[in-house]
Specification:
The chain is an alpha/beta fold. It folds into two domains: about 1-85 and about 245-260, Nucleotidyltransferase, domain 5 (2-Layer Sandwich); about 95-240, Nucleotidyltransferase, domain 5, CATH 3.30.420. The chain has eight helices and ten strands. The strands form two sheets. The protein has a five-stranded mixed β-sheet. Helix 4 crosses helix 7 (about 225-235). The longest helix has 22 residues, at about 185-205. The two termini are about 15 Å apart.
Length: about 260
């Protein structure tokens, strides 16, 4: 018997399966479509096909993320903050801080010694401090794909100062730096520093002290350059996990197993 977690985010939809012993079986990710319910169905079918299973093998399903309430097949839905905590504790036991940067939001979550959410800060009202902020500013202005961004940041020698966190005003600053022939790696790194500072401030505003171990998740966690920036600004080790987009879906799947077994 399998248990499914479906995380329908603003940019990508993810699904994870765990077995009766709580072991991760499979993970899948697709781009989120306009129809959130259809996205959930598609990514769930995708992960089942990868696992060589069918919907009849799934005993219980929990959804999370922005589109969690739209997913009609789910037996229950839970907030993504809880799902992230459960999933992160599974992949990185003992984690005390989670920095998660998604396509259109960012979160800083502090966990207690038992892996439960103690406090959190979240930005889901503004593109600043999100993957979308990176995408708009670097792809459109610098002509750099997201996959190339990490290497550029790691090559930077003198990151520029990007003082504005408003996407429009930051764009003007970047254009000004480009007109001065500043190397694009220094502009990319400056953008990364600006985003990291905002997210750290977001956490501190929620009275998060960034206790270690600190885990970096979400799509932006694939960027080693940003991981290094966080570590430098916090003066602490920051650990990007494998499959950084999987934690919420995995946490939902683990909670699905728990809900079904206690019923």
């Amino acid at each position: 018997m399998l248990y499914a977690g479906v995380d329908i985010g603003s940019t990508t939809s993810k699904a994870a399966l765990v077995d009766e012993d709580g072991r991760e079986v499979m993970f899948a990710s697709i781009m989120t479509e306009f129809n959130r319910n259809a996205s959930g169905e598609k990514v769930l079918q995708n992960v089942l096909e990868k696992a060589g299973a069918s919907i009849e093998d799934v005993a219980y399903t929990i959804s999370t993320g922005y589109g969690r309430k739209a997913f009609e097949r789910a037996d229950k839905n839970i907030p993504e903050i809880i799902a992230h905590a459960v999933g992160t504790e599974y992949v990185y036991p003992g984690a005390r801080t989670i920095i998660d940067i998604g396509g259109q939001d960012s979160k800083v979550i502090e966990l207690d010694a038992g892996g439960n959410v103690d406090k959190f800060g979240m930005n889901d009202k503004c593109a600043a401090g999100t993957g979308r902020f990176f995408e708009v500013l670097t792809h459109r202005l610098l002509g750099v794909e997201m996959e190339e961004l990490s290497d550029l940041i790691l090559k930077a020698e003198n990151p520029v100062e990007i003082s504005s966190m408003c996407t429009i005003f930051a764009e003007s600053e970047i254009i000004s730096h480009l007109s001065q022939n500043i190397p694009i790696e220094d502009i990319a790194a400056g953008t990364g520093v600006s985003i990291a500072r905002r997210i750290i401030a977001q956490g501190k505003a929620a009275r998060i002290s960034f206790p270690e171990p600190i885990v970096f998740s979400g799509g932006v966690a694939n960027n080693k350059g940003i991981e290094r920036i966080f570590a430098k600004l916090l003066n602490k080790e920051v650990h990007a996990i494998e499959k950084p987009q999987s934690t919420a879906a995995l946490g939902a799947a683990l909670r699905a197993r728990k809900e079904h077994q206690k019923a």
